[in-house]
Amino acid sequence: MKVLVVGSGGREHAIVWKLSQSPKVDKIYCAPGNAGIGTIAQLVPIGAMEFDRLADFAKSEGIDFTVIGMDDPLVGGITDKFEAEGLRVFGPRANAAIIEGSKAFSKELMKKYNIPTAAYETFDDYDKALEYIRNGDFPVVLKADGLALGKGVLICNTLEEAEEGLKTLMIDKKFGDSGNTVVIEEFLTGQEMSVLSFCDGKTIVPMVSAQDHKRAYDGDKGLNTGGMGTFSPSRVYTPELAEECMRTIYQPTVDALNAEGRTFKGIIFFGLMLTDKGMKVIEYNARFGDPETQVVLPRLKNDLMEIFEACVDGTLDKINVEWYDNGAACVVLASGGYPEGYVKGYEITGLEDAKKAENIIVFHAGTALKDGRFVTNGGRVLGVTGIGKDLDEAIKTAYEGVKLIDFKDKHYRKDIGIK
Ligand code: AMP
Ligand code: GLY
């Protein structure tokens, strides 16, 4: 098969890496991809939002199957476009990807179908929202309705902060039209974890759990980022909790979407929090997580291509999805200054040594090739995944990999997996 993967981050590198091991896959293309992906796939210089050009390319190149990695094209309807052109594609249609595209929608869905989540109200009127927070408790959580690169969530400890936050979202429109509608939510406390799942529209198969570190600095200090590191499995997600989630969250979500005429085929990412009242959904995403994928897919025994096809064909119940009983940790190497301003174009050294090392996989996120050498080309540059017989060994291995690689102003957290 000829397969096209759409996206350009560490997540897409992990998907391409896993697909490249499939006996069913002859050739992989990635649009637009990055320099690391370019070592195992043919890069196609078409942006992820250029649906017409992507579909034309898939047809002219005879692509058999396309995998959408990113949220924006899914929410924007790339799957609908590919299906209309008669192309096979993995990822939910726009009417199902809305579980990520609109927080107001996903909260309403959870409320209607009794799926446990934080109490909330939705507002599109600034004055009414202001009145609500003035009469409410603190901390309070404000969320821009639409996609905001994972940054549209504000946790406000005081009324003053909440008033400022509401202005940022609804008046200053820091996240554009995403802030036209705002979800105001009860603040929950507890351990967070991520569970990704394969879904064929009826059957849902959860993957092994993972945990993400979103803040820029050790000890969860500094600004929120796209993710500075992950590990799998989560230390708190027991088989009993998995069973509870299947019963109260995973299957009910799939059933709710079907009941609404929004059949979901693809990846549902559950952002979960273990509160003193049980597991609650913090958010849904309609795609693999980044950098969760970099620790989850290396633990998958199966041929990923077979699972993707089963999701599209509605035959996921025929597949026995199996996982290695081990651990994985991914440490993100970022450009100094990220998530704020940073410099691009620094040479990256040590990648060859890391490639030779056992149990270390380097996934590229923001890299480019310049005169035949890899250089930094983004905030998150690389994700170094270590595999071990258990989590502790995986973390140690990941940090051994980190020591091999260098570039100017390299920044990474030293406490991934240690929480
Ligand atoms: P989200 O984009 O919805 O995942 O939110 C980003 C982060 O904000 C989450 O990973 C949580 O750490 C935090 N968060 C979101 N909602 C809540 C909530 N209701 N209570 C406490 N923390 C929250
Ligand atoms: N790591 C969080 C996300 O992919 O949304």
In short:
The chain has 419 residues and is an alpha+beta fold. It has 13 helices and 21 strands.
Structural account:
It contains 13 helices and 21 strands. The termini are far apart. The mean pLDDT is 96. The chain is globular, with a radius of gyration of 21 Å. The longest helix has 21 residues, at 239-259. It is 31% helix and 29% strand. It is α+β, with helices and mostly antiparallel strands and 419 residues long. The chain binds adenosine monophosphate and glycine. The site of glycine has 7 residues, from loops.
Which CATH architecture of the largest domain?
Answer: 2-Layer Sandwich
- Could you state the oligomeric state of the chains shown? single chain
Note the total helix count: 13
Bound molecules: adenosine monophosphate, glycine
Number of strands: 21
Note the gap between the termini: 42 Å
| SS strand fraction | 25-35%
Could you describe the largest sheet, including whether it forms a barrel? 6 strands, antiparallel
Could you please say which CATH topology of the largest domain applies here?
Answer: D-amino Acid Aminotransferase, Chain A, domain 1
Give the rounded overall mean pLDDT: 96
Question: Would you identify the CATH H-level superfamily of the largest domain?
Answer: ATP-grasp fold, B domain
CATH class (first level) name of the largest domain: Alpha Beta
Structural class of the helix and strand makeup? Answer: alpha+beta
Q: Compute the number of structural domains.
A: 4
